[in-house]
Amino acid sequence: MEETTLHTEILETHAEVEHTWPHVPSMQWETVWWPIKNTTVTLLLFMVLVVVVSVMANRALQKKQSRLKDAFLNIIGFLEKYIVDSFADKAFARSFFPLIVGVFFIILFGNLFGLMIDWLAFAFDGSHIEEYMRPIHSDLNTTLVLGLITVVVFLGISAKYVGTVKTVKGYICNFSGHSIVEKCINVFVGWLHLIGVPATVASLSLRLFGNIFAGMVLISVISFLGATMTEALGIYKSGTFLSLPFWFFEIFVAFIQAAVFAGLMIAYFGQSKEDSH
Q1: Where exactly are the structural domains of the chain?
Q2: What are the pLDDT digits (tens) for 145-203?
Q3: Which of 53, 166, 242, 271 could make an S-S bridge to 226, C-beta 3.0–4.6 Å?
Q4: Other CB atoms closer than 10 Å to residue 234's CB: what's the count?
């Protein structure tokens, strides 16, 4: 009986100690209800919002006059002009326009939706929302998929426009050159490009993941420290609002990360169209 009571007290103490620390998620998903993960919950809700917004945009486009229609067309027109100017090939740009713009919006609004989750966790303290949901791109698996899609597409572009044999040869055995020294150098450069393929996946995925994950942890820690400080002073947990400047800064980071990822996609796709090996 005494051992059971002691064990219960230890568990309660352990729970209290865990509660006194901010929620810092793992680098990958966390299980909510097996086999459902917290990233899956967020992704499903985000997909529902995407469907709702898509239906609203489709209805707005069918109207003759609509502010939403004008805004949507202006944004799409600006992005199309930017991508066409970047590729300097209208047909090629339009063929990959849906993919690039789609990834841009997924990253942008996915990050903003993640910030909404953080804000809900602050507003409903004690609800443990952050344990059931997490920003989509704070999961390394999600960003890894985006990186793999980008690399697979630019390899496919290279195979289509340069040729499959020439692409493989450029990576493995590029013996082009007038002298033996030049041929050896080109072979070595081809191997460097081959190493650069998985390095590109890692670079794209880790850059996006690192920025979003770090921002989420930063907001969580600042909110915890502010709340703990003001609670100790008897001002409830108003110190949570100390994280607001960081929260607004993360809105800027959300846009920058989406723009950087889309810009890198444009650069990789444009480069793969040319015979760079």
Answers
A1: 36-132+142-273
A2: 999 999 999 999 988 888 888 888 888 877 777 778 877 887 888 888 888 889 999 99
A3: 242
A4: 6
Contacts of 200 (CB under 8 A, 6+ apart): 147, 150, 151, 268
pLDDT computed for residue 237 by the predictor: 61
Spatial contact of 114 and 216, defined as CB atoms under 8 Å apart: yes
- Tokens read off for 221: 């820690």
Secondary structure (DSSP) of 157-169? HHHHHT-HHHHHH
Measured over the CA atoms of residue 262, residue 120, residue 252 and residue 82, the dihedral's sign is positive
163 conformational bin, left if phi > 0, alpha if psi -120 to 50, beta if neither? left
* Bond before 98 cis per omega within 30 degrees: no
Label residue 128 by pLDDT band (50, 70, 90): low
Note the pTM of the prediction, 2 decimals: 0.80
Q: Where does 124-238 have alpha helices with state H?
A: 129-132, 140-161, 164-172, 180-232
Token pair of 91 as six digits: 């047909």
Residue 183 burial (C-beta neighbours within 10 Å; 0-12, 13-18, 19+)? middle
For the stretch 9-64, pLDDT in tens is 444 444 444 445 555 666 665 666 677 777 888 888 899 988 888 888 788 778 77
Distance (Å, rounded) from C-alpha 41 to C-alpha 143?
17
**CA separation for the pair 132, 119 (Å, rounded):** 14
Element (H, E) at 81: helix 67-87
Neighbours of 264 (CB within 10 A): 16
Count CB atoms within 10 A of the CB of residue 62: 9
Phi, psi at 37, each rounded to 5°: -105, 160
